[in-house]
Automatic annotation (TrEMBL), chain A:
Membrane topology value: Multi-pass membrane protein
Keywords: Cell membrane, Membrane, Transmembrane, Transmembrane helix, Transport
SUPFAM superfamilies reported for this sequence: MetI-like
Stated family: Belongs to the binding-protein-dependent transport system permease family.
Domain of life according to the entry: Bacteria
Pfam hit, one: BPD_transp_1
GO cellular component: plasma membrane
GO BP field: transmembrane transport
Protein's name in the database: Carbohydrate ABC transporter membrane protein 2 (CUT1 family)
TrEMBL record, chain B:
Region (Disordered) residue spans: 1-27
Keyword Nucleus among UniProt keywords: no
Protein name: Carbohydrate ABC transporter membrane protein 1 (CUT1 family)
Record membrane topology: Multi-pass membrane protein
Domain annotation ABC transmembrane type-1: ranges: 97-310
UniProt cross-references to InterPro entries, sorted A to Z: ABC_transporter_permease, MetI-like, MetI-like_sf
Taxonomic lineage from the root: Bacteria, Bacillati, Actinomycetota, Actinomycetes, Micromonosporales
Biased composition (Low complexity): 1-21
Keyword field contains Transferase: no
Originating organism: Actinoplanes xinjiangensis
Principal location class: membrane
Gene3D superfamilies the UniProt entry points to: MetI-like (1.10.3720.10)
Spans traversing the lipid bilayer: 34-61, 101-122, 134-155, 182-206, 227-246, 289-311
Region forming the signal peptide: none
Location relative to the cell: Cell membrane
Amino acid sequence: MTLQRLARPLTLVLLSAVVLYPLVWMLGSSFKSQEEVLNNMAILPNVWTPGNYAAGWSNFDVSFGRFFVNSAVVAGLTVVANCVSCLLAAYAFARLKFKLRGFWFAIMIGTLLLPGHVLIVPQFVMFKTFGWVGGDWPYAPLIVPQLLATEAFFVFLMVQFMRGVPRELDEAAIIDGCTPFGVFRHVILPLSRPALVSTAIFSFIWTWNDFFRQLVYLSDLEKYTAPVALTLFIDSSGQSSVGPMFAMSVLSLAPVFLFFVAFQRLLVEGINTSGLKG
Amino acid sequence: MATTTARPSSTRPPAGPAAAQRRGRPAKHRTDGIAGYLFLSPWLLGLLTITAVPMLMSLYLSFTNYDVLSDWESMEWVGLDNYRTMFTEDPSFWHAVQTTLMFALVATPLKLAAALGVAMLLNRPFSGAGLFRGLFYLPSLLGGSVALAIVWVNMFNRDGAFNSFLGWFGIEGKAWVNDPDFALGTLILLAVWQFGAPMVIFLAGLKQVPVELYEAASVDGASPWRKFFNITLPMLSPVIFFNLVLETINGFQGFTSAFVLSNGTGGPVDSTLMYTLHLYIKGWNEYQMGYASAMAWVFLLFIGLVTAVVFRTGRFWVHYSDGED
């Protein structure tokens, strides 16, 4: 009987070890000396040394700090763009009555399942024709689509959230003389804060991790974001760069990890609200 | 778009309760119509310029030899040549199809099985449940990044942590990531490692299963297995279905880890040449945008077809209980 009662916690602890192993190993390896990183596969270093961080930071002609700033700019602007544009669209879908609403809503749900890779070729061609690819500020193709609420997932998340806001509040506001804009401003906007926070966090994490689109649009080293820059380590496959590569990998995962620590509950629940049921 | 648009409207679980709400609503302001379109305008503009027009454009490009580098005048209409080349003269295309199918069809069921198994372990209140839930969810947030793919590849390299683990049992490993027979396997493991997101959704689903069902089954003397197959699985089938659609589509789109493992080549010997990676190579390394467009359309039709098949078969095993709230 005791064995049966211990089985579950034991399994969970073992499983946690397996799940956490790669992360701890990465952290440990980033603090190993150059010699240790190649020969000592133990999870933790014998001697802890921060040298890889300094080496990785200045491994390329452009400081890694620059790549992080670029990533932060792209992610930050994406967060703002998604929050504003998706909230507007969601309000229309969730609360306003207009012709063809059901039709547009079905289309929106359809774009949820539309793989982004299908559109990347023509979008690239289009943005290139506009002269937005390359140049001094090559981030427009990464941000403009978000300004136009193309991230259907967040529209859907907010629609689901708003459907949970009692309609009586809208109706009371309308009786008090509010226009649809007033209802948006005074009822929906303040009450949608939790959905906005979820959108902001997920936008940030996904953009921070995004690779394909950034790889396609960024070609100038100085404009690289952190994920694109990290792939340069793979190119320079020399053994000396393994330690620095780990160090920069750790740094690039740090913001996501901190978000996770700070908003763990919210993230897990965000998945639920958007996943099923309102 | 038709193929992917038509179906999802029957992803009913989310829309269901809201529809009921809509019915009992009083008539609204007339200004709503104008306001509706005003609020919707950014989205509509995006739909038109970022989605619809590029889709039509890529359909057109797929019949040309457009290369992005030279100007539009040098573009020629080549009819079905791109499609013909793809199916008959590009062996790498078929390698990519094979790799992608293999990846999605192995990784998705494994990932969902892990997700469901762990969700069932966690679906009972005990101190620390929340901690474990968060911990298992963490890889879903980190796993898609370049950084983690780099770590993963190193873990399965000759001198990696995985081989030192095998060493405890006296097994001599190899450079798994450089072996055409195993490289894709390491990527599948990376995908399975991210079982946390579907797990969280399963957990929410499990909480909805009425406890009375299990109690009644216990009274009747049902074994735990029996309860699993006759209560848990059927009651959970809408959630399983939802996860299956989502994860299958995700699986087909795997790119980052394959790019990192093969340094953008799809090697060793095309064994990690995911479809999207092949598309990237054709478009951005070889500047064959026409060909890449054709690949994108075949991909879209394929995903539409798979989604349709999943929805069609779902009818036979997805069980929607009437009492759902």
